[in-house]
Amino acid sequence: DVKVTQSSRYLVKRTGEKVFLECVQDMDHENMFWYRQDPGLGLRLIYFSYDVKMKEKGDIPEGYSVSREKKERFSLILESASTNQTSMYLCASKGNWVQNTGELFFGEGSRLTVL
Amino acid sequence: KQEVTQIPAALSVPEGENLVLNCSFTDSAIYNLQWFRQDPGKGLTSLLLIQSSQREQTSGRLNASLDKSSGRSTLYIAASQPGDSATYLCAVLMDSNYQLIWGAGTKLIIKP
Q1: DSSP-assigned states of every residue in A35-87
Q2: Scanning A57, B32, B38, B49, which has the fewest C-beta atoms within 10 Å of its C-beta?
Q3: Each residue's pLDDT tens digit in chain B (112 positions)?
Q4: Do A42 and B100 touch (CB under 8 A)?
Q5: What span, in angstroms and rounded, lies between the C-alpha atoms of B21 and B65?
């Protein structure tokens, strides 16, 4: 069974704190994604990575950075958390066209509250 | 610019009914289309993936169809059950990039 694991289901942080959200996949996928999901705004792409050490900005990268040092792990970093970053964060992974059909698999989500 | 629309935004039906959820898109040059289910407070679960060359995919009581020329996909759920209650989202992958374009979802409630 495919598995995308997000390290924390629920986090509460204070404004200005540095926050790390970790995501690990066990499918040897090339591509990994970070989304945030907010009521009425749907899913919005923050960053994605198509290979180790490679990253591309999505639609809303401001206030975030990412790290992909190993193929299986993609980290989302909030350098200085703000209240408007309170949200559900979703990690996803997808193989390339050689590996598989391009199906996208998600983790369980991390709900972050910034006070 | 690709736009993906899901209508209705919410749907409530009695248990046992067959139902259809709709997903429409404006640009037919898609690579694939994927249907997901999301339970409250949880991540997304992949239900069905249809490649652009395919017309339909089936899994259990679910059947998804794709008509690229008309820009439509439907998700058919047979013999609905209360456990099918969730939000259903569709997303299209365009040919030339890694990004998916998402619909806003249909919130489905199956009444016992």
Answers
A1: EEEETTTEEEEEEEESSTT--EE-S--TT-EEEEEETTEEEEEESS--GGG-E
A2: A57
A3: 899 999 999 999 999 999 999 999 999 989 899 999 999 989 999 999 999 999 999 999 999 999 999 999 999 999 999 999 999 999 999 865 577 899 999 999 999 9
A4: no
A5: 11
CB A14 within 8 A of CB A115: yes
All residues of chain B having their beta carbon less than 8 Å from the beta carbon of residue A54 are: none
CA torsion, ordered A58, A63, A67, A68, to nearest 10 deg? -10
Q: Which of A77, A88, A28, A44 is nearest to B42 (CA)?
A: A88
Identify the closest residue of chain A to B37 by CA–CA distance: A106
From chain B, the residues in CB contact with A42 under 8 A are 102-105
